[in-house]
Write a structure and sequence with these properties.
Catalyzes the interconversion of L-alanine and D-alanine. May also act on other amino acids. It catalyses: L-alanine = D-alanine. The protein is an alpha/beta fold. The chain folds into 2 domains: about 200 residues, TIM Barrel (Alpha-Beta Barrel); about 130 residues, Lyase, Ornithine Decarboxylase, Chain A, domain 1, CATH 2.40.37. Helix content is about 30%, strand content about 25%. The strands form 3 sheets. Strands 1, 10, 11, 14, 15, 16, 17, 18, 19 and 20 form a 10-stranded mixed beta sheet that branches. An 8-stranded parallel beta sheet has the order 8-7-6-5-4-3-2-9. Strands 12-13 form a two-stranded antiparallel sheet. Strand 16 and strand 17 form a beta hairpin. The structure holds pyridoxal-5'-phosphate.
Length: about 375
């Protein structure tokens, strides 16, 4: 899908908010701890290259992405800091990773064997940098079994081609009030670390945003900061933030059509909304193909510092709102973000449709152009 720039719907990203959030977190870390910015999924919809640049300026010392292509995008943009791919990469692409100095996650003993095998069969001279993933209870990727972990250690120690740069795990419940599952995962990671106690590993990391915010980045000399980087609360509304974050993203558009509709008329597909009296109805050039999904029917946008309800079903490219009076075509409308005294936070929006802030920002599609405020930070 191409970016639609001849249309007023746009994602606006305030780079100074991201800079602020990185610096806030850095100020809480000790001297031995550093910060890798998690910029996977196009930096949670914010634009990977722009975000990576501002994070580097603010003091991040590396990046995490989810797949090899995301890592290559950063390298092609001239970013030279360490990059770790957090998810599985086929050993068939190890040559690409080595040539671009990208670190890969070792997600299983099988993978390590395949990687070693691949490396012995090629003439590559540089070693492959790996971070060993321990599955302590997330149940996604990583080594679970202590016997496997011990065998992985043996394989890595004997290998001249695999360079163990990191060991890490991922917590599934760092953002909940009940910490018992978090503690179980801590115990398992401690046991895995004991197996490696006689080996120097440069990076030990356990901390996503939630672990960094609410568990003092337990056992980490580098943290993997994602959601908080963008100014969002990884727990949604469950836990209070320990310090202020600034939300970086807004979604805005403009009225493209305004009309008065008499009482008892229907609006939208399925005729699900009926006007109660003579009503002013505005049309917005944004719909579910942009990520404003149909569940947002009944939610409110903000126009002229006042709420306006989304009435009728959200269409693919447009949706309708009920206005308090006649507004001119071209009047700005805020979908997420501040307008006058009001703000539609991503957590309010997420709560309305029954999801988390992450899913909303990642769901904003490529059709929406991204515009940057305070771009001077990157220039
Ligand atoms: C996405 C991801 C993160 C970042 O998580 P946030 O909650 O956004 O901070 C960290 N580590 C891993 C392994 C991830 O997949």
């Amino acid at each position: 899908m191409i970016e639609s720039t001849h249309r007023p719907s746009q994602v606006i990203i305030d780079l100074s908010a991201i800079e602020y959030n990185v610096k806030q977190e850095l100020s809480r870390l000790n001297k031995e701890q550093s910060l890798f910015a998690v910029v996977k999924a196009n930096a949670y919809g914010h634009g990977a290259v722009e975000v990576a640049k501002v994070c580097e300026k603010a003091g991040a010392t590396g990046f995490c992405v989810s797949n090899l292509d995301e890592a290559l995008e950063l390298r092609q943009a001239g970013l030279n800091l360490p990059i770790l791919v957090l998810s599985y990469v086929s050993p068939n692409y190890i040559d690409v990773a080595i040539s671009q100095t990208i670190s890969l996650t070792a997600p299983s003993l099988e993978w390590l064997k395949e990687a070693e095998n691949y490396l012995t069969q090629t003439a590559l001279t540089n070693p492959l940098s790996i971070h060993l993933k321990i599955d302590t209870g997330m149940g996604r990727i990583g080594l679970r079994d202590e016997t496997d972990i011990a065998l992985a250690k043996e394989l890595i120690v004997l290998s001249t081609r695999l360079k163990l740069d990191g060991m890490f795990t991922h917590f599934s419940c760092a953002d909940t009030k009940d910490t018992s599952y978090f503690e179980l995962q801590q115990q398992r990671f401690t046991r895995a670390m004991d197996i490696f106690s006689d080996i120097e590993i440069p990076y030990i990391h356990t901390s996503n945003s939630a672990t960094a915010l609410w568990h003092d980045a337990w056992c980490s000399n580098v943290i993997r900061l994602g959601d908080a980087l963008y100014g969002l609360n990884p727990s949604g509304k469950t836990l209070e933030l320990p310090y202020e974050l600034k939300s970086a993203l807004s979604l805005t558009t403009e009225l493209i059509h305004v009309k008065q509709v008499s009482a008892g008329e229907k609006i939208g597909y399925g005729a699900t909304y009926t006007t109660e009296k003579d009503e002013w109805i505005g049309t917005l050039p944004i719909g579910y193909a942009d990520g404003l999904i149909r569940k947002f029917q009944g939610y409110h946008v903000i126009i002229d510092g006042q709420y306006a309800e989304i009435v009728g079903r959200v269409c693919m490219d447009q949706c309708m709102i009920r206005l308090s009076k006649r507004y001119a075509v071209g009047t700005p409308v805020t979908i997420f973000g501040k307008n006058g005294e009001l703000e539609n936070t991503l957590d309010d929006a997420a709560e309305f449709i029954g999801t988390i802030n992450y899913e909303i920002i990642c769901g904003l599609t490529d059709r929406l152009p991204r515009y940057y405020l305070n771009e001077r930070i990157n220039n």
